[in-house]
Gdsl esteraselipase
Amino acid sequence: MENKVCLIWFLYFFTYMTNFPAVDMFDLKVDAVLKRQNGKHKLFVFGDSYVDTGNWPKSMSTSWKEPYGLTYPASPSGRFSDGLILTDFIASFLGIRSPLPYTKKGSDGKSSVKDGVNFAYGGTGVFNTFVNQPNMTTQINHFQQLIQEEEVYTKEEMSSSIALVSVAGNDYATFLTKNGNNMEDLGDITKSIISQLELNLRRIHGLGVSKIGITAMEPIGCLPRMTVASSYKNCSDSANSLSRFHNEILHQTIQKLNNQTGRPIFVILDLYTAFMSALNHPGNSNFENPLKPCCMGTSSEYSCGDKKGMRKNYVLCRNPEVSFFWDVIHPSQQGWFAVFSALKTSLLSLL
């Protein structure tokens, strides 16, 4: 039964685009997060819904529907959460504004992209998925155009630049759907995904980025899409085993890359451990039921944000701040802050 639930989760994953006090107790209020501009770094973001801050067209994505953006900025902003996400917190850590989404880049030259650019699109992967949006290779093509053709940044500016990469989950979902849920070849697809990811990381570094942070896969068995089977009480270890296998191969690849470059250019941001730290220590956090989402469809055919006419086909918790997850895939703003807090040591390695 658990394996069946794991497969069901993968079929749905790509349709969503992913001891901890409250945010303000760390003096990271929303205004402070978005207005600190004393950093020297540029941040370039590639990947999926865990880092996308608004690249999808407004008419095509749930991230532009209410109640997304409920906490910040009090209306949908294109983020797949109620407020700030991992990208925003990392940008604040670097002392810069959250990078502008690529699709919002204006014609005013450097001023709109002085803190970097976010190329990520929810639902995408290393390879093509079921969403008609740029995969990681195409995202890097857009980046290359800025660097080599438009010459937006100088070599000096690029010397302190940082990239954030978050991909893989949607590649697995697409593979399983296309292959009739056959899990026998998952080992091969993992190696294929990470092999292409390695090429992409080399390419980003070759374009002048000095440090690259790559997210490990989160514990997919703990996402509400999975934990609904246990009434949001338990994670699926069989699903988490895929995350662990992916992360093991990823660690080996990153170690090889760093050995070849002779310095720690590539840094793993361990989402698996960060998620588990928050989810396994409810007594030391403000999360009431860490495995239950704040926003969900009224039945299995609906999801957060779905409406028919004026009728809402979703239910919403009273206070997102006590929910680790916003919807069945993505953390809330408070959940992302918990993850960010657990990643601070790794983030120091990017400086």
Summary: Residues 237-261 form the longest helix (25 residues). The CA atoms of residues 25 and 247 lie 32 Å apart.
